[in-house]
Amino acid sequence: MIFEILINYFMTLINLVVTKLGLRDSDNIDVEIVYKSKDFIIVNKPEDIFTNNHNKAVSIILPPVYCNYIKKKKHVIDTVRPSLDVLLGKKYPHLVNSKLEHSFYFVHRLDFVTSGILCIALNKQACAKASGAMQKRISRKYYIALVRGHVSKDHLELTNSIGYCAREVDGNRKMCTIDEECCTEPRDAHTRLIVLERGVYMSYPATKVLLQLVTGRRHQIRVHCSTIGHTIIGDYTYSDRKDTSPCRTFLHSYRLELGVDGINVQTNDPFTKAKLNDLWIPVEYINRAGDDCFRLFSNCS
After folding, report:
1. Which of 33, 103, 151, 183 has the fewest CB atoms below 10 angstroms from its CB?
2. What is the model's pTM?
3. What is the strand order of the sheet 162-165 is part of?
4. Which helix (H) or strand (E) holds 147?
5. How many CB atoms lie within 10 A of CB 59?
6. How many Cα atoms occupy the beta-carbon half-sphere of 273 within 13 Å?
């Protein structure tokens, strides 16, 4: 058992180095399409991919352990990674809008580290409808995450306002809550959390949670989870650069109820015991994320 854990650990280490340095063949990065119509494409975005940055070189901050592994003296490495707009343009060249800076109408965004459901409109009218539904909070967005430690309560309402961290100096545009003195330009933020499973990840306590975004601030879920003392596994930025073991940040956009044209789509759960090579072992099952995620939250007092 210990031998298998060590093997899986080093496999995740190698995978992270390969991914962060852009050593994978970008032509082999597939973008799963979960919904397509004349107005929308909804994709399952891979982790560690920008939504749109024109394939430009970007500065990626690596944990020191990985930098030592690849014998780099500095922690910031400039590399080229294909962004989602580039990948979609290769997959659907006939849908590229040459008049748009990023080729498509991106209705919303996902963080670089976050995988999962992302909605792209194929025309201006569809983009306006979808954007309006999100602004009016008709749309519902649900995420699945694995967080450090056991979340004691089965249901939480996280409402700390979120702003920019004035101490940020490395260009990550780190966010923080209004409780911190360094917080600037705070805005209202609301995340709802339901515990799905409690267990262990690589022999340490962890919890699988389902989250509903009521508002949509930058890094909102990552900040709110960090604020309650349960950072998302693999979130190097919000763990004060201490979480270095996983191959990715375990945050996934699981389901989108767009509120337009009856569009409700979801992906499979990427954080199961089998998919994480038995590094995640659930021991207590609290709730199940099914086809009606909202029911879990509406039943909470």
Report:
1. 33
2. 0.83
3. 175-177, 162-165, 183-187
4. strand 140-148
5. 11
6. 8
Residues in CB range of 139: below 8 A, 6 or more apart: 130, 133, 256, 257, 258, 259, 260
CA-nearest of 75, 47, 73 to 235 is: 47
Token pair, residue 144, equals 């699945």
The residue from 39, 78, 85, 111 that is catalytic is 111
Contact yes or no for 105/126 (Cβ under 8 A): yes
Name residue, tokens 């690589």: 202
Written as one letter, the residue type at 258 is L
Nearest to 268 by CA among 87, 50, 117, 83: 117
Clarify whether 111 is annotated catalytic: yes
Strands 191-201 and 251-257 come out as unpaired
Q: How many CB atoms lie within 10 A of CB 120?
A: 25
How do residues 151-208 score in pLDDT, each as one tens digit? 999 999 999 999 999 887 665 679 999 999 899 999 999 999 999 999 999 999 999 9
